[in-house]
Write a structure and sequence with these properties.
This protein is an alpha+beta fold. The protein has 20 helices and 14 strands. It is about 35% helix and about 10% strand.
Length: about 475
């Protein structure tokens, strides 16, 4: 089961990872980074100060005598099937032996949870629905505490807070970038990673010429996969205030050299070249692409860093080397530097109607604080001061500047989403009429860059009209 990325969430720090930049597609720098980098503090060394003056959730609640049964609704069917969730529960029950946890996972979580939330019966703990408007969070979920206190301990709370109260905690986070098979890229004769979009496409062509692998796998039949390209936009800007400036400076989304143009222009050029992607994008297979990637049949895919651990597991299952699963930033250099943005994966909330509210709150705090789920998945921990995952160690070799989006000013909170919905531009949308799918279809059908420019112009017109109406 995939982990669908949320739109980039807010966080007030910038993580800078330094190292040497690789250059060009055919250079001489070795493309096999092995450096191990971590943040200043280890995952288990979060101080009381970093925790906002609190002890851990487990320590705070372990003597409360909680009991009862709670149901946890989530999207990780794979982790139900392989026993991971059951194994995690043992750690929780060591602290709360009288609380029974029942899990229910959904293949189509977004739609199923939306249907369930039309009544009060939507479990006790849920992965926070990504389509739910920020202002509606208190209508469905119980607050964990004040933003001022919890933001000292957790990342990515800004978009999950209403009137100073927090309604969701992070289960982990990801970096934006590109998954690639190191062996395939090396077999193609590529000795250094690209630093521009032109070099990136040149590398894909080199793979097509020198290997039997599919250079880029669109996974188009799984509609959510194309939305992964949106996660690249803010990183491509190199600016943690980019989305805010789209509103305050009232600039177009698409213009020559803009981050949207860099990302979706690259998508269009890849999709428009049938030699660079699978033969029939309409019959792709998400689960099947994992072993195919591990076996060197697929070279490259745009996915969040959350995907690394899943593809490494696939490599183990088919008997190939999981170290061949590599991860690179989207190669849009700005003044010689490459950037990637960090954002939250699914958040976790508690049903305000739960009949076992205290036990549900204890579980959610434990899962997001002490369970180790993020670390096991190779994700960025939601806890401030925790170590960076080893899966992103190559970012150090590339000198990637990994940052997180700054929060919007109070008067603009929620306005980006409001404009996105009103304009039907919806950058994270997966409707078949969304501009991403229009661009893909135009590319597949060989309509050329004129079609791309027309779609981009339509997006700009719709966005500007809604923006000016909403902002005044």
């Amino acid at each position: 089961m995939n982990t669908k990325l949320k739109r980039t969430a807010a966080m007030c720090a910038v993580l800078v990872m330094t190292g040497s930049l690789l250059t060009a597609c055919g250079g001489t720098t070795e493309n096999n980074p092995t450096a191990d980098t971590t943040a200043a503090a280890g995952a288990g060394e979060t101080s009381a100060a970093a925790n906002g003056g609190e002890t851990t959730a487990a320590a705070a609640d372990s003597t409360s005598g909680l009991s009862g049964t709670i149901k946890v609704l989530h999207h990780r069917t794979d982790r139900d099937q392989d026993g991971t969730m059951a194994e995690l529960t043992k750690g929780f029950n060591e602290l709360y032996p009288n609380v029974k946890i029942e899990y229910q996972s959904f293949t189509n979580y977004a739609d199923d949870i939306a249907t369930m939330m039309q009544s009060d019966n939507y479990g006790d703990v849920v992965m926070t629905p990504q389509a739910l408007k920020q202002a509606d969070l208190p209508n469905f979920f119980a607050p964990f505490g004040s933003y001022d206190e919890l933001s000292q301990k957790y990342y990515w709370l800004e978009n999950y807070s209403v009137d100073g109260q927090v309604y969701a905690l992070p289960t982990g986070g990801t970096a934006s970038g590109v998954l690639y098979n190191k062996k395939v890229w090396a077999d193609a004769g590529i000795t250094s990673l690209p630093t521009t979009t032109e070099e990136f496409i040149a590398c894909l062509k080199q793979i097509e010429e020198n290997t039997d692998a599919i250079p880029y796998y669109t996974n188009y039949n799984a509609g959510w996969c194309i939305t992964q390209w949106q996660s690249l936009v803010v990183g491509a800007s190199g600016d943690p205030d980019y989305n805010t400036k789209l509103l305050t400076e009232r600039t177009d989304l698409f213009s020559a050299g803009s981050p949207y143009d860099a990302v979706y222009g690259t998508l269009f050029d890849i999709y428009a070249d049938p030699t660079l992607h699978e033969e029939d994008p309409m019959t792709t297979d998400w689960e099947g692409c994992k072993p195919a990637f591990a076996q060197g049949k697929i070279a490259t895919m745009v996915l969040g860093s959350w995907a690394i651990s899943q593809f490494q597991e696939a490599a183990v299952q088919v008997g190939t080397d999981p170290a061949d699963v590599g991860y690179m930033p989207f190669p849009n250099s700005i003044d010689g530097k490459i950037y990637s943005v960090s954002s939250n994966d699914y958040m976790m909330s508690v049903n305000k109607n739960s009949s076992n509210l205290d036990a549900a709150m204890a579980y959610a705090r434990w899962f997001c604080t002490d369970s180790g789920f993020a670390q096991n998945e190779g994700e960025i921990s939601g806890l401030k001061g925790a170590a960076m995952p080893e899966t992103l160690s190559s970012f150090d070799e590339l000198g990637v500047q990994l940052f997180v989006e700054n929060p919007a000013p109070a008067e603009l909170i929620g306005k980006f989403d409001e404009i996105a919905k009103a304009s039907e531009v919806d950058p994270w949308g997966d409707a078949s009429t969304n501009y991403k799918f229009r661009m893909a279809e135009a590319a597949f059908n060989g309509q050329g860059r004129e079609a791309y420019d027309k779609i981009a112009a339509d997006v700009n017109t719709a966005w500007a009209a809604s923006r000016d109406e909403i902002l005044g």
